[in-house]
Amino acid sequence: MKHLRRRTRAQWTRDLLLWLLLSAVIAAMGADPVTDATGFAVRTGPLVALAGAAVLAGRPWPLAAVLLLLPFGPWRFDMGLATSTLVWPEHLPHVKIIPFQPVTLFVVWYAYLAGRRMRGTGPALAAFALLVVIGAGLVVARGAGLGLWITVTTGLLAVYAVPYLLGLLRRRLLQQREQARLSAAARARLRERARIARDMHDSLGHDLALIAVRAAGLEMAPGLDPAQVRAAGELRVAAAEATERLRQIIGLLRDDDEAGADADAGPPLAPVGEDVAALVERARASGMPVTLRRDPSVPAPALARAVVQEGLTNAAKHAPGAPVTVLLSPRRVVVRNGPPRSRPAAVPGGLGLTGLDERVRLAGGTMTAGPSGDGYELAVELP
């Protein structure tokens, strides 16, 4: 009853039209209602009612419709889509291939729907076994000749088995298509998460590091009273804690699909159009002693800004107050800093260098990062 209440008006209309069409085909195959009204009422009437029950059950349970339409199966052995003459192993003229009557087409349709809509194959196998038993019983009752076995076998395959397998194949293909769509959507979400994580690290992490540097400079500036020094220290600590929380959030957002994110990256969070010189000037304005060495007439590599930003961010977090030197050449970018002059404002162990190394690798270059003298050096070689 739930399935009947859930049907829409359009579904009721389609089912009614299907039943009328099926009833018309059944009536055309039965007795003439004008000349043989009794025969029509006795034989055709129950079949029309059975067809109505099959249509009602066919939408939620197509296998039930197949069983309800059992009288219209391939049991008319004197009819067939084709007639053949066999000469081996014995001479058999006029063997019917695929016994078929007009109403059998509806049976084929519901067999297809059974494969298309049913999840498990157990009920379908049980129903097909029942059909095989019925077909075998009819053949045995008619003499069990080889021609009859060929007729019923082709009928069972063409009317029940093949349509069901086609429906099952269609369902599997649709499931694979849906799985592919969901997988593509999941990859898109992962790429977006990776892009957000990278942009948060490159932009917000850099800005928080500069805030910590500026706060450290204020903390050591002469002429401040103890309350102002304490406020500057609290600001530096708060920036360091915010950086650590940002690193934890980035760890949740990032995943192994960052390479795909680089291909589909959206708009960055950093200022639009900011080049290396503007990035260095912004860091210098925050209090970092940065020196930029480059030939303005020679274009910098495409990844220069990302490398410089990562190097300045690391220097601000792990070596506050240290002088930083940025070297730019057409195929090499180096960010080198000296020893820290105050307590670092961040905990080591971030993922910035890992992400940068992946971007450099995808560009065909190599990256090295590690201690250099009493400081630290980040160097990128591009082809």
From TrEMBL:
Pfam families: HisKA_3 (PF07730). It is an enzyme of class 2 (transferase). Its EC number is 2.7.13.3. GO terms for cellular component: membrane. GO terms for molecular function: ATP binding; phosphorelay sensor kinase activity; protein dimerization activity. Keywords: ATP-binding, Kinase, Membrane, Nucleotide-binding, Phosphoprotein, Transferase, Transmembrane, Transmembrane helix, Two-component regulatory system. It catalyses: ATP + protein L-histidine = ADP + protein N-phospho-L-histidine. Residues 192-257 form the Signal transduction histidine kinase subgroup 3 dimerisation and phosphoacceptor domain. The chain crosses the membrane at residues 40-56, 61-77, 97-115, 122-140, 146-169. The keyword Kinase applies. The keyword Protease does not apply. This is histidine kinase.
